[in-house]
């Protein structure tokens, strides 16, 4: 998809807001209301990340986001309803598709105003859309009924509006009754760890994790001695307690060699290798950020060696952590601004985050999501403020920026990777891949990408981009963009890794990993993981696959 014009894009636009927020604030009091708001914000941002949405703005109890693919926007809105109901909050949502005017301050245009007006007409627990959305998502498993024809304040003409009934035949369900909503709000508030109990909660969790892993090792040993073998664990087993799971996969043997490590978090994000260890960035509940897990791969059964807390949640989970030979780098958002946290890959010790961009604020210490992919290459750390289209070259010895590259208004930096002598930038919303010369800071003309680019890796003489819309892997020859090739892989690919002479693709939609032979440009093996895979790394002759535990599992 090529960019229509500088700062202008076609987009599916989503507005949400909490129903009855004033009454709820009076009911629960100021402190608990702030807690519920923070939880609400985190749950919605989790769904935005899951469905490829880009947050434009939030104010109090409302959200505004944009999507490249209309059906993703509708599915995201549908997923938000049960997520926020889990904490006793009901939301309404409105969607429209049209051209938006992008700027550093956000997005505008008549389409934005239309989506906002539609949202204001939605009933509690309802996803209301325009005729345009219905036409664009026809045949995608989304069922609607017509709500009627309306005049939208300040918008010319009459508008037919439709309410979403079901997704893949599963009904949205009615709003919570008042009694149940109050009970869930009370329960979610009382479940939130306070500052005084947070350390104790973490300690108990870590002890429980050690016990769980010990029990698992003993069980495996007993089964081995009895002659039984274990196949790959099912999602119900590996995520029974809401755990994200990191699978170690031997790609040269049978799928019986899939070994799980339970990370006691909701989502296993990016995975990197450094200092002889595997490092996985995770997210946790709606109340706390996740952490970086260090896993020692040397044991017969992988074990978690250390958990290192990391604040914030990156909206670019495929690339918000990177590794050099002796360090792991994580983009973080702290009250002082956007920064980098350095973790020594040998000792596991982390230093206080160094602030790179103080313009990105975290007001009042509120937990916010952000878009800040990071990469390593040419002896530097590269950190992007994805929303402003700015890339910082950071000196690894000081953590301070030594150069700044500005790609201009309307460019969103979603994915970042270094290789083949260039820094590669993916604008997922704009559908482009851009190469930047690290010596001159000069950007090559953007290369149009088809579908929905979800991840990037550079190696084997090519740039590899997964396409989550058309279920394929795109191969781009560096500096020769006319010869883009594609390889069919599994459903909804979300991550790419290179190693062992192959290119590996994690497929979120059907829980598999596809092996691609770069010489033949052909998929040669599919490994079933039996989990909602979303991240991938190849290290020490093995694949490391991160899974996602859906909220409420």
Q: Biggest sheet: strands, sense, closure?
A: 9 strands, mixed
Radius of gyration: 23 Å
Task: Compute the number of strand runs.
Answer: 39
> Proportion of β residues?
35-45%
Question: Could you list the spans in which at least 5 consecutive residues all have pLDDT below 50?
Answer: 1-6, 191-242, 285-289, 364-368
CATH 2nd-level architecture of one domain: 2-Layer Sandwich
Q: CATH-wise, what's the superfamily of one domain?
A: Nucleotide cyclase, GGDEF domain
**By helix and strand content, what is the structural category?**
alpha+beta
Helix fraction, binned, reads: 10-25%
- Tell me, what's the shape? globular
SS field, number of helical segments? 8
Fill in the CATH topology of one domain: Alpha-Beta Plaits
The overall pLDDT, averaged over residues, is 79
Q: State the separation between the terminal residues, measured CA to CA.
A: 36 Å
Briefly, what CATH class of one domain? Alpha Beta
Structural write-up:
The chain has about 550 residues and is α+β, with helices and mostly antiparallel strands. Among the domains are: about 180 residues, Alpha-Beta Plaits; about 110 residues, 7 Propeller (Methylamine Dehydrogenase, Chain H). It has 8 helices and 39 strands. Strands 1, 2, 3, 4, 5, 6, 7, 8 and 9 form a 9-stranded mixed β-sheet that branches. A hairpin with a 6-residue loop joins strand 14 and strand 15. Helix 1 packs across helix 2 and helix 2 runs antiparallel to helix 3. The longest helix is centred in the middle third of the chain and has 31 residues. The N terminus is likely disordered.
